[in-house]
Amino acid sequence: MGEGPSPRMTLTTQLVLRALLEEPVQEKYGLQICAAAGLPSGTIHPILARLETLGWVESRWEDTDPHEQGRPRRRYYRFTADGAESARIALARASTPVAGLSRLRPRPAGGDV
Amino acid sequence: MSPLEGQPSQRPNRRVSRRALARAITKDRDLAMALADDNYRTSDSALDRALPELSRAVVDNSLEHRLAGIAARMLPPPNRTRYAEEFRSELGDLAQSGAGRWRQVIYAFRQLARARHMRKALMASSQRRATPGSEAS
């Protein structure tokens, strides 16, 4: 698990994965994911398409009658059984180099131990 | 030499096709009337069901829906219907959440601007599916 192909871990991909990982079994529709990830609407669909291809995320149409709801049915996304774990591993790997960069931060003068 | 030279005249064919077209229209009209009649006999709410669709089609002619439609049409053919519906649904959600017209237009513009990336992602997906060896283990 987690050894298969993974998406390019761009910042937006990481934000989408983190947003979905907040409640991994909860289904979310596009605008909810945008809000949770703090991304502008209209930016997440290419990422979700890639995640879906990798089998990390699955989606389905809302099971309601649009006429009764008075709005078009939503497309809901959530992690697959293995997807959440793969995402956690990929995020941990992706965040490692960022954590390593903290060592390069300038230290206060005279603070050299 | 003219490119039309040596070809049979188009006039007789055109007359024949007009007659065929007229016959087809009459036949289709009869069929449509029969179907409509049957539909109303079996379901009185046929018109009730059709009206929201028609009104939505009129509303969907707005700038944001047209832009979202163009964005969906830029995607690979097998994905167009799904994403057209998804974009429409999100525009509906935006409208319901009280987002103003411009926010909806901006949403649609973003979809349009990202359509190339989306197309690339979806093409890669279909290639991946076509090549089983590259699928996640």
Your description of this structure?
The complex is a heterodimer of chains A (113) and B (137). By secondary structure, chain A is mainly α. Chain A is built from 5 helices and 3 strands. In chain A, strands 1-3-2 form a 3-stranded antiparallel β-sheet. The longest helix of chain A has 18 residues, at 83-100. The radius of gyration of chain A is 18 Å and the shape is globular. Chain B is mainly alpha-helical and 137 residues long. In chain B, 78% of the residues lie in helices and 0% in strands. Chain B has 5 helices and no strands. Chain B has helices at 11-42, 46-59, 63-73, 77-96, 101-130. In chain B, helix 3 runs parallel beside helix 5. Chain B is globular. The model of chain B is unreliable at 1-6 (pLDDT under 50). Chain A binds chain B through residues 3-5, 29-31, 40-43, 45-47, 49-50, 52-55, 67, 71-75, and chain B through 49, 52, 82-83, 85-86, 88-90, 92-94, 96-97, 106-111, 113-114, 117-118, 120-122, 124-125, 128-129, 134-137.
Summarize the structure.
The complex is a heterodimer of chains A (about 110) and B (about 140). By secondary structure, chain A is mainly α. Chain A contains five helices and three strands, in the order αβααβαβα.
Number of helices of chain B: 5
Helix content of chain B: over 70%
Rounded to the nearest angstrom, the distance between the terminal CA atoms of chain B is 65 Å
Low confidence ranges of chain A:
109-113
Strand element count of chain B: 0
Q: How much helix, percentage-wise, in residues of chain A?
A: 40-55%
Radius of gyration of chain A: 18 Å
- Shape annotation of chain A: globular
> Roughly how many Å is the radius of gyration of chain B?
24 Å
Alpha carbon gap, first and last residue of chain A: 41 Å
Elements of chain B, N to C (H/E):
HHHHH
- Largest sheet of chain B, if any? none
Average pLDDT taken over every residue of chain A: 83
Q: Assign the structural class of chain A, choosing from mainly alpha, mainly beta, alpha/beta, alpha+beta, or little secondary structure.
A: mainly alpha
What is the H/E string of chain A? HEHHEHEH
Question: Hey, which two chains have the biggest interface?
Answer: A-B, 25 and 35 residues
Category by helix and strand content of chain B: mainly alpha
**Overall pLDDT metric of chain B:** 71
Shape of chain B: globular
Number of strands of chain A: 3
